[in-house]
Amino acid sequence: MFEMRPYRRHNELAYxxxxxxxxxxxxxxxxxxxxxxxxxxxxEFKTDVTDEGDHYLLEADLPGFAKKDIHLDLxxxxxxxxxxxxxxxxxxxxxxxxxxxxxxxxxxxxxFDLSGVDAEHIQAKYENGVLRLTLxxxxxxxxxPKHLEIQ
Length: 151
Description:
Structural class: alpha+beta
Largest sheet: 4 strands, antiparallel
Strand order of the largest sheet: 1-2-7-6
CATH topology of one domain: Immunoglobulin-like
Number of helices: 3
Strand content: 25-35%
Number of strands: 7
Helix content: 10-25%
Distance between the termini: 50 Å
Order of helices and strands: HHEEEEHEEE
Shape: extended
């Protein structure tokens, strides 16, 4: 999940004696067995979210994926992007031909909180390995003013 906030780069030049311990703790508790179960460098695809005024723009890098292998699921206020890339080296007739394999294959997914988004009008486009989602903001309806009578 993420919060829709402006991007700010933290000052990495300042010495922080606890940085390594925080990074270790984050990796341990977020993915305690990540190194054993991860299928390569694409365990998590990279995304950018920008605030365009009346909508958010989410761009996800998914190079090498076929459009039919990318699925968007919306459940409540959570958007899940699933992508799956199949390997040619899994086929029996091609398996013995490979000398070296570095590209990763498998299933990848990310979830995003859409509590401030009008889910009925989301638009998705996949082009040149980039998935672009236009996420219109919910209209801020202010409560109507009322006049109360004094008794």
